[in-house]
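hey
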């Protein structure tokens, strides 16, 4: 039996994440004594997650076409995700952020995204809107 999501998708739009938030989170962790993470790694990871969503057809538009298009105000919102994307993000975005200090490079991190996507496809039921 497939798992159901923890929470149904809200109708209102909201910011899911932004590069600014992720840089701020890293700064707070650094201030708390964690090892600093290079800004380029943070930028790559932010783009990498969005690019994965886009490549799997989980977005309603192209959010970022390339890493070079990433700006300091780049973000993704609920409205940028289709239902599948919303529920994937709900399940795995926190895990993705928790891997930031364990980053093993683009290829290895893509393997995590692909593994999570396979689990998501096998284990989760997406509610009908």
């Amino acid at each position: 039996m497939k798992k159901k999501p923890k929470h149904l998708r809200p109708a209102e739009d909201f910011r899911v994440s932004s590069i600014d938030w992720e840089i701020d989170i890293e700064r707070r962790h650094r201030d708390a004594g964690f090892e600093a993470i290079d800004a380029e790694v943070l930028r790559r990871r932010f783009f990498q997650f969005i690019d994965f969503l886009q490549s799997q057809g989980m977005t309603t538009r192209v959010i970022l076409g390339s890493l070079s298009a990433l700006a300091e105000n780049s973000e993704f919102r609920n409205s940028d995700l289709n239902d599948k994307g919303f529920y994937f993000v709900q399940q795995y975005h926190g895990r993705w952020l928790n891997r930031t200090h364990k980053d093993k490079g683009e290829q290895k991190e893509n393997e995590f995204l692909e593994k999570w996507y396979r689990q998501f496809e096998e284990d989760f039921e997406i509610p009908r809107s």
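The longest helix spans residues 106-123. Strands lie at 15-18, 75-77.
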